[in-house]
Request: fold
Amino acid sequence: MQSILVTGGAGYIGSHTCLELIKSGRKPIIFDNFSNASSRAIERMEELAGTEIEVVNGDVRNYEQVSKAIEDYNCEAVIHFAGLKAVGESEVRAMDYHDVNVIGTHVVLRAMKQAGIDKIVFSSSATVYGVPKFLPYTEDHPRNATSTYGQTKLSVEYMLEDVRRSGEIKNVAILRYFNPIGAHSSGRIGEAPNGIPNNLAPYVVQVACGKRDAVNIWGDDYDTPDGTGVRDYIHVVDLAQAHLAALDHLDAGKGAFTVNLGTGNGSSVKEVIAGFEKACGKSIPVSVGPRRAGDIACFYADPSSAEKLLGWTAKLNMDDMCRDQWRWQENNPNGYED
Ligand code: WQD
Reply:
């Protein structure tokens, strides 16, 4: 059975991907420092998978820990999720963002090279494109990140492109995620943000279950059909499955690639809120405020490369995303806490 080191495997996207890995007959080795994840997620994943899951409590900046995990479990590839991911926070903790996201990736690559493994799937982000010069974004859209968080994703993309060219790590898959939302259909695992959620969907469901008063709509005067921001939301299970397709592609010796992972459809803030109202069967209070600094009016993916290269397309729609995220929220109003 192929063992895959999954850094950040206890987190939101990592946990859903580990379940898909197990389904495909692979063995995930979760490597996580639990800085933004819960060990309860592991218990839930084991319950859903019906098997024990190997977990290493470690930090991607620690070369010895990463190397040991790869060697102890004879890992054949790495899926590298671990990183810091809050745009606002990145503007006041730039040192930490470069440390964890950029240096952490360098450490992972060093450990892979030392162990003689050369397949890596990396979590990049649509944020590397910056202000759209055209839409939908295709993979050759110029890159111009506008936040420190985005810069760190871009720096890692450059690093991966360099090590691929040098031949030190040849099989590099760069996956540019659009806006992942939703949860596992069981309602047992999902996104559990610390404190006040930065992102739209977790905030909306916290309002829907009465934990917060109203959704703050950050601007309704954008040049979009209803004036609110438009994004390409993608169900986390579709996203997780794309990682399997990426690994299959690398395993088949088809080489390095970069793809967008989105649905290709844009939804506005108001449409997302309407989707959640339908899912939870009640109206969700909103209050319209000023635009959020740094926000872009509208962006969405051209996901056709992922289909052509990997045979992957998103299958779940906004109704599925809202239903599953609401089920998770309703069953776990405090995330993995009691
Ligand atoms: C979506 C829309 C907001 C919250 C960021 C990162 C990106 C990725 C995902 C990953 C926008 C509006 C939001 C709220 C609102 N990061 N909004 N009220 O900004 O597209 O992307 O998160 O790791 O890299 O840039 O996602 O969910 O924050 O916002 O009106 O309370 O919802 O203005 O139009 P965003 P988001």
Remarks:
- Residues 3-182+233-262 form a domain with the Rossmann fold fold (CATH 3.40.50.720).
